[in-house]
Amino acid sequence: MVLVILGLVSGAVALTLPPGRASLADEAGMLVARLSRAGDEAVISGAALGVRVDAHGYGFWRRRQGQWLAFTGEGLFAPQAWHAGTQADLVEAGGWFALDIAADADPRATPPAIRFYPDGTATAFTLRLSRRGQDLVIEGDPAGAIRVADGREPGR
Fold this sequence. Notes:
By secondary structure, the chain is of the alpha+beta class. It has a single domain, classed as minor pseudopilin epsh domain (minor pseudopilin epsh fold), CATH 3.55.40.10. It is about 25% helix and about 30% strand. A hairpin with a 2-residue loop joins strand 1 (about 50-55) and strand 2 (about 55-65). It is globular, with a radius of gyration of 15 Å. One of its GO terms (biological process) is protein secretion by the type II secretion system. This is Type II secretion system protein H (GspH). Keywords: Cell inner membrane, Cell membrane, Membrane, Methylation, Transmembrane, Transmembrane helix.
């Protein structure tokens, strides 16, 4: 219950920041809140959730009947564009991950790079956000924990 309340409060705060005025730290904090809530939602709903990251922003997906289906519309899991000037580099455990899905790939059949499972586990990842010379790193571990670090290399 506490996790649900924290997720709702985090989501409400994240969704009320004015677009274009958020610092890189604010943008990273909003993403961490949404990622944390996605992990909670996977456990609560019993369905895997995923996040696709590309050069334009990120979007949430839910696994249903063997397919990945995009969340659309408004709300905590609505697609989100990066603020002007923000660049993203995603590293999955084991190496760099191409931010864009191949043009001929079916996104419903291709799993998102970041995934949260009903048992509370997740894919390990490192996401570097950069804007105007500032870098922040968001790290996710296999146990589903997510944190913001400074722009140094992960683990240092």
